[in-house]
């Protein structure tokens, strides 16, 4: 393992490499192998990107065919046959069955860019400035999305005031049970000092923020309030969407009707970058051509792999399996909590995003280190990194899942012994 | 050609597809072919991304090998052998020969994100808020970079005030000859009402802004002023870098010494998304790990193709050829101007970014349409789209270059006749 | 009565004159007489300025002596004997008995200016930006103080975003019971998205906001929280201070210890403009000479009358009388409420600021009109003007107080009949 | 002289008292006398307030009569006979002869408040945010007006970003000759990155900024540009108006036509606080009643003395005298400059605001100190306090004027010797 090149020439800002101190050389499904031949089970999936595993074989084949056929890899937002396949297939597999007529908007291939575009559109459509965002929310690093991101560890780097956001506690945060009702009353009061908002920007499941799961009831309360005050509902489903929770969208089956949905991460299937917003037509009509432009908006490789990814959602078996595996993850975490009473630990999640809140960032970091040493990749999240989040590829084999959970349990034990 | 899928399901915001009303199916070097088999010469290169042509054969081979070998496509900022190759090779080919010790920072793969990161770093390193940006500058669409972007057609979509930028005219804009001297005096005056800036953010060649070329002298004046007032120099070389002007950086050979350089577009070689900043070590040291995070910061495919792209710069022949072709582009445009005296047209550019400023957006649009109909792809830029920018792949064959220029000349004639 | 001059030459913005459609010619204690000789009982006292009555005879004499002696009417912040008398007397009568060592800061003679100065000082002293202000708060019309003012009827006129304020509900507003506790938890949470505040800016009794009276317990909770998070406590006692509530400060006797107190309105005694902040020495030390300058900071006439005003507080009889009259005001309002059950009316206040919340702005306006027609001046306040506020001069004779209350009761009856 | 009370109990922010270390006891016309009986000639006039001298005898009499007659000292913006006299007289003496139909708006009695109101109105009337303000401009200390103030010594105290101002160099500042032309071009350029402004806020003579005198031509250029781009012209005549320059307004006789004029300082005549804007009717119509409220908007004493002040402008003799005395001030300063060649000193001013720019703040401070010690009050201004500004009462007797100039010359000599 030779990391001197990175140490000499890469920016001090590099982060994950410090948690996983090795040089990875190849990967397949839920396994990553470093250049010394050591194999790791991947419970992190590239921060929730690799829902269909590393180097998904069906996607590999499609990509190689596409490259060999001189497909259009980079198209801005010109029309290509590849993009048409993606748009058409997405409509067929995702939108049509749900009776959704949202339009697909492509932008620079980062979740942050998707959120920025959604914020612009909401502000334009309503003529209002402020967007309601929630404590523990994570929406990106660019100035617009960073203003919506709650974590001070990121916010402090802006160098300028982050404005035009009204912050409310998330359902599961202190005050979250009453915040919406109080905000409703305040908006009705002409002396509250508050502006009518353009939109509510919510992650139905806050992933980076610590795997905080909003209830159906609370999401409806948000939506009702938004409708009441003339604001839009934007669901940021960037990490929790694309099958992660056992349904395509994290909020499927709740009877919700968001105006804008932001997607990225897993949408390109293969780790190939893409971002896409779904805008209701009457909202989308506020855009003018080219209003939010960008270079990599027509990523051919992402469209190709993304079409393969959509195939997974054409029958129930895939999501049934995700839910079943999610249940196994959860059960194991619950057992771990039960084996460690008095620690105040909590298990949270839905489908294959499950988490153990240890309430202690230093402890979680130690668990992560022990796990790495034992051959398991996990990523802490939440305030101070105290939450151990498990987001393996949805396609992880049973054996790797079990082995990974065994390694996790051992790592937790080791970290506990080290206290 | 069937575009109904797009019309039904894609956002109203789609733009370039309106200029090029067809569905592209494949592409090779400087040719794009639509699904009806019609071949177009590409003088636009995906907005300056495809410097090495569509589907560059050396890159295709490298990408297919990589995919077949289960290389790491998506790695966040963990270490991979592929990333090490890229970092090492970039240092060897670009930095070392120039005596540069800048560090490479990877972020979400958009130029906008690169600019946002550079702005954060400059603000952090100086403890100041305001960044000097220039009229006609284009730096991206997210709130931070959009504040630096000058074009009102983009700015008006922010929905919130765009702050923390001090705007100066670019060298070639009205007042550009005296602006720096006046700004220097104002900064020295405690009653000027101006803040000391964190940085000067400059495109040495403004591409989207109308192919405005800064002189060596002016860039030195900017750099000198920045040093004098304790501000950083950020060169945004996203469109004009990576060989486009006949040298690797657009400002090579001028004796300049920027603190931060933003790169994206052509860096990934194949149209594969990537963005990278080069930060001087003493500036870069202000970052903490993970301060500006993001998902698609470790794009394996871009690293692989990017390494192949770097090979083009290992001897002089490639850039010699770029300069020679650039000269042909320029000569032809000069001839066109000479054939149309009294129009006030102007030719601007360097290397293989050359432009004809027609002073008339409607006329340029007509030229673009006539060119498309004749089989040539070009993209207007500048205020109101009045500048016809020619940025073919640097690898364009002689024959295509000549044919493209012939088609352009015919399109201009046709548009002139239609006046 | 001739108002044509006003209608022809005064701005459309004029307001109170529309409520009181006559031309006043003279005034004495709690009586104003218009140019037609009609006498009005004044329950408004110039919006709480004339605590010692119109043309207080002791002040008249002092002012005339001062003018005849060529005293210094206008001194900026140079030292004058007159100012020394005021400073010395204020210390002796107000500060010393309370063990307060706050320093007196003079600024442009408006409450708004006092608040702006307090906000600057708090931001400087803490190095923080955000100031917590409360729903229904009124702090002034200039951009800094207006940002803290809650009423949208005023805020909408800013023409620019009003920033750098964190808004919480006042104790008596919806959510006011839990807001401080939730805010404490949020500030302790690094992912709340909230900044640590520079100060809490509170009116212990919100006058313009509808005579909302904070409890001692809540004010302590604010103060405790401020101490805990390193923020200052600023009490805006501009309307409720200077004896209005039956004590010099509205928060006397509660064991509170504000860092900054803003005063204006009644401080000059005679309606002569003045504003003054009281800053704790360790906070005040953050000022540099001339940091917040202004022209009318040394108002000789206000100092002279202000010294006379201070005499009222040298024994207990004056404030005893204020409390007794306040009790009469209150009892009468309670009787009115009891005579009108089913209306949901509420009586609020302390000392001689008492109010009837009718819950209905149109009704309160009608009452005000009926009262005016009958010879009583009152001023509605609160959201939509629904609260009838009674703030007669503290020196009002018993007879006028009784007669005024009779007129009020009749006006309420008349307005009720008109429903 | 006893200043211990101030040192013990007044804020550290006190400023002028440090320049004039004595305690003043009385004053008459251009003389101030301290408590030890020492008489000072006043060339500062309370920062330009006391145009009609300290304790103007005609005003004294009127004020005493008014107080004895129980006039309305404090009226908010209700109608009073006193206010009607003022409004009527101001129209008759100032507006009507100039054919002006501006409406008078009263607000909190500070110049800062006048500027804040003007900015609000301009923003409301145009629906735009940015206001053009000039280098070296001084417009007040509250957040809105402070944003327009150029001097960093004041701006640094805001504690928050000062936004929504576009800064241009004043005519006499570096770049001032070309700035308007360049700004015009920039506004016409959709890629300049600049917003269309709501207004141009200009002091025709910058007093605090260093007595910088705009030419008629430049002011017309400002006005023309404003008209061209749909912006308002706001003249801040707070210090230079009310006769100071030898005409009522500082810009009289230039054929200018401002939309809003801000007045304060000398308007109340006696040092009695007042502020007033003059708004063109079609602009003023954008106000709603009570939109910019405030307590001390109806200052009876200021109206009374202000009416007397207006009498000075009913025939030519007063202003003839002002111009003659101004000429004497100027000649003497010119002589001083000529006696000190090689110092690079400059004389600037108009009428009885004349200044010597010494280019050296420390030197000017020494001159001020020497002058004080010799019995003359002067006030440095401009960047770093390098400009000695002479603004005696317009009513100063010849003898005091001559004696004051003698003292000034001696002080300059003394300061020169001390170099």
Give a description of the structure.
Four copies of one chain form a homotetramer. With 419 residues, the first copy, chain A, is α/β, with parallel strands linked by helices. Chain A has two domains: 4-55 and 317-417, Aspartate Aminotransferase, domain 1 (Alpha-Beta Complex); 60-314, 3-Layer(aba) Sandwich (Aspartate Aminotransferase, domain 2), CATH 3.40.640. In chain A, 39% of the residues lie in helices and 16% in strands. Chain A is built from 15 helices and 18 strands. In chain A, the strands form four sheets. In chain A, strands 5-13-12-11-8-6-7 form a seven-stranded mixed β-sheet, with helices on both faces. In chain A, strands 1-2-3-16 form a four-stranded mixed β-sheet. Chains in contact: A-B, A-C, B-D, C-D. At the A-B interface, helix 1, helix 2, strand 1, helix 4 and strand 4 of A face helix 1, helix 2, strand 1, helix 4 and strand 4 of B.
Any chance you could write out the topology, listing elements then pairs?
The structure is a homotetramer of 419-residue chains.
Chain A: H1 4-9, H2 16-19, E1 23-28, E2 31-34, E3 39-42, H3 45-48, H4 57-68, E4 79-80, H5 81-95, E5 103-106, H6 111-126, E6 131-134, H7 143-148, H8 152-155, E7 165-168, H9 179-188, E8 199-202, E9 205-206, E10 212-213, H10 216-229, E11 232-236, E12 260-263, E13 276-279, H11 281-284, H12 300-311, H13 317-339, E14 346-350, E15 353-357, H14 361-374, E16 376-377, E17 379-381, E18 387-390, H15 398-417
């Amino acid at each position: 393992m030779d990391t001197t090149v990175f140490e000499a020439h890469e920016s001090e800002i590099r982060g994950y490499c410090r948690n996983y101190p090795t040089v990875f050389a190849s990967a397949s499904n839920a396994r990553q192998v470093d250049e010394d031949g050591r194999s790791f089970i991947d419970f992190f999936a590239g921060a929730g990107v690799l829902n269909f595993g590393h180097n998904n074989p069906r996607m590999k084949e499609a990509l190689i065919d596409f490259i060999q056929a001189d497909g259009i890899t980079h198209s801005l937002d010109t029309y290509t046959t590849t993009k048409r396949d993606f748009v058409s297939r997405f409509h067929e597999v995702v939108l049509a069955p749900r009776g959704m007529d949202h339009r697909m908007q492509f932008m620079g291939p980062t979740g942050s860019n998707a959120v920025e575009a959604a914020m612009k559109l909401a502000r334009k459509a309503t003529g209002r400035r402020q967007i309601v965002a929630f404590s523990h929310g994570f929406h990106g690093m660019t100035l617009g999305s960073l203003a919506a991101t709650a974590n001070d560890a990121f916010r402090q780097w802006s160098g300028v005031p982050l404005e035009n956001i009204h912050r409310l506690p998330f359902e599961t945060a202190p005050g979250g049970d009453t915040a919406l009702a109080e905000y409703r009353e305040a908006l009705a009061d002409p002396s509250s000092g508050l502006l009518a908002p353009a939109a509510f920007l919510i992650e139905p499941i806050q992933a980076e923020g610590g795997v905080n799961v909003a209830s159906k009831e609370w999401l409806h309360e948000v939506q009702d309030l938004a409708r009441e005050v003339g604001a839009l509902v934007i669901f940021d489903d960037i990490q929790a969407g694309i099958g992660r929770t056992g349904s395509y969208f994290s909020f499927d089956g709740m009877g919700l009707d968001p105006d804008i949905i932001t997607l990225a991460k897993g949408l390109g299937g293969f780790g190939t970058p893409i971002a896409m917003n779904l805008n209701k037509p009457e909202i989308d009509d506020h855009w003018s051509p080219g209003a939010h432009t960008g270079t990599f908006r027509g990523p051919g490789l992402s469209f190709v792999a993304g079409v393969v990814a959509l195939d997974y959602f054409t029958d129930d078996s895939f999501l049934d399996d995700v839910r079943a595996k999610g249940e196994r993850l959860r059960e194991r975490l619950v057992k771990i909590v039960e084996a460690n009473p008095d620690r105040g630990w909590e298990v949270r999640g839905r489908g294959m995003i499950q988490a153990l809140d240890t309430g202690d960032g230093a402890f979680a970091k130690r668990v992560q280190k022990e796990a790495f040493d034992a051959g398991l990749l996990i990523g802490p999240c939440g305030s101070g990194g105290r939450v151990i989040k498990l987001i393996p590829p949805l396609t992880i084999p049973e054996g790797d899942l079990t082995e990974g959970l065994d390694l996790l349990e051992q790592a937790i034990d080791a970290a506990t012994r080290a206290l």
